[in-house]
Each structure stands twice: as structure tokens, then as C-alpha cells.
Amino acid sequence: MSPQVSAEICGGISATMNHSDFHIRLAESHDLESLVTFNLALAWETEGRQLDRPLLQAGVESILVDSAKGFYVVMEHLPTGKTIGQLLITFEWSDWRNAAFWWLQSVYVHKEWRRRGVFKQLYDYVLREGERRGNVAGIRLYVEQDNAVAQGVYAYVGLAAAPYKVFENDFVLPTRSSE
């Protein structure tokens, strides 16, 4: 297969990405600033929330130093050296399956790179890694109920709506009404 690949993107738009210009890897400590910046943008764009930057930074740092909490996966655009997308994996043990579900969280693609297949490549990387490890029960995520664009993307990559509703009692961020 040639490094020039045309990816069919959700919504029927296709984009060509030279795959040799991109690299997907586990995030490292030097990624801290871009991870924090992307998470701030994510919270604002999807939920209209302004996060406390020092609290968020401490949370991201905590994951970067303690892989038992999870791990970030990032995509870099090699010619510019910029991170263009991220996602976070956290774990939920399933006694019914004797394996952990990987929860996709903090999914963000820089605005300039959206609708070009960045998330699909990140997701495919995580899917392959979970299958390779053999001790992963599956992949789950939650999405803001009104975020139709994200829901369309997730369906496009093969995720299906689960028959569950999420309930919470959030001690840090105020719970918003679902009206």
C-alpha cells in the first residue's frame, strides 16, 4: 500500500493524508502542555465549561506518571512537530468478563485537522492495541447527549450506542441539567 491513502470521512467527505507525515504514540511528559491545552478546548467546545487549568494540569500529569490510571495516545504531524489529536484511555474492571474495558476519554482533534481521519486512526491504533494485549474486554466511551457530530463519528468507526444511561454525582464539576 502506498503511503498516500485516501480516507473516507464521516459525512462523505474524503481527505488524503500522507501517512508517512504522521506518527501515533503514547504521550510522554513533554506532551503535557498540548494535552492540557487540548483538554481546555475540549471542555469549552463540547460543554461550555471553563476548567481550572492548575487542577487539569495536575490531573494530566498524574496520568503521565502513573500508567495504572490510564494513558494518553497522541498523533503528531511530523513535518511541523505538532500534536494534532489525542485521546485518553482509562480502565474499568469487568468481573463478568474477567478483563478491563478501555474507556475513551478526552478525545480531541485540533480544529485544522478535523474531518481528515485523525480520530479514526487514533481509534484504530487503540483497537489494535487492545486486541493485541488480549486482556481487554472492549472499548467504551460516553458522549454529551446533544453532540450529534461526535456521535456520528463514533458510529462511523464502529462503536454502537450501549443500552445504558450514565448517572453521576460529580464532586468537582457542577452537574448540569439535562434539559
Number of helices: 4
Going by CATH, the architecture would be 3-Layer(aba) Sandwich
Strand order of the largest sheet: 3-4-5-6-7
Q: In CATH, what is the homologous superfamily?
A: Gcn5-related N-acetyltransferase (GNAT)
Descriptive overview:
The chain is of the alpha+beta class. It has a single domain (about 5-155), classed as 3-Layer(aba) Sandwich (Aminopeptidase), CATH 3.40.630. It has four helices and seven strands; from the N terminus they run E-E-E-H-H-E-E-E-H-E-H. The protein has helices at about 30-45, 55-65, 120-135, 150-155; strands spanning about 5-10, 15-20, 20-25, 70-75, 80-95, 100-110, 135-140.
Task: Put the structure in a nutshell.
With 179 residues, the protein is an alpha+beta fold. It contains four helices and seven strands; from the N terminus they run βββααβββαβα. It has a five-stranded mixed β-sheet.
Q: Which key terms come to mind for this protein?
A:
30% helix; 179 residues; Aminopeptidase; alpha+beta; disordered N terminus; five-stranded mixed β-sheet; 29% strand
Describe the SSE topology.
Blueprint (H helix, E strand, L loop, with lengths): L3 E5 L5 E5 L3 E5 L5 H16 L5 H13 L5 E7 L4 E13 L4 E11 L8 H16 L2 E6 L6 H9 L23
Parallel strand pairs: 6-7
Antiparallel strand pairs: 1-2, 3-4, 4-5, 5-6
